[in-house]
Design a protein that fits this description.
The protein is mainly α. It is built from 6 helices and 2 strands; from the N terminus they run ααααββαα. It has a two-stranded antiparallel ribbon with strand order 1-2.
Length: 151
């Protein structure tokens, strides 16, 4: 299957694009875009907060993007930064009450979308898909760190 890389990457990009569009409907209520929803989703996984470095890892974004997005969401009252040192370094970002509400709306929307998008998959196929994506993701993370072997 010569085009498997192209099929894989284009499918992943299409899924991400659609995810941002669908979550963008919820984010518009807060004056934000769908791209902010990935941060809300990541932040909702931790009640203790997440550092900028960890957000970079989790969301696959650079520090400039994380910093810019966090500033926007702080200004919108969705998150706070706690435990920062002098000059605002360090610390963790946490969801506010409004942030938790927004994250829940996004989660509900995404759950509905995933259910509708996978309606024609059997439970067995769905499990195989998610298991395969987990394996591919872990293998790609390893390649990023170790490099691609020559043979």
């Amino acid at each position: 299957m010569e085009d498997r890389f192209e099929r894989f990457t284009l499918s992943i990009f299409e899924i991400e694009k659609c995810w941002h569009k669908l979550t963008g409907e919820e984010m518009a209520e807060y004056g934000l875009k769908g791209s902010h929803s990935v941060y809300l989703t990541a932040l909702a996984k931790s009640k203790d907060g997440i550092s900028a470095t960890n957000l970079c890892e989790i969301c696959g974004k650079d520090k400039a993007d994380v910093s810019r997005m966090m500033k926007i969401m702080i200004d919108k009252g969705l998150i706070v930064k706690e435990g920062a040192y002098k000059n605002n370094y360090g610390g963790v970002y946490k969801l506010t009450k409004s942030g938790w509400e927004a994250a829940e709306k996004v989660k509900r929307k995404v759950n509905l979308a995933v259910e509708a998008a996978s309606k024609n998959l059997s439970n067995e196929n769905r499990k195989a898909l998610y298991d395969s994506l987990d394996i591919i993701s872990e293998n790609l993370k390893t390649l990023v760190v170790e490099g691609i072997p020559e043979n």
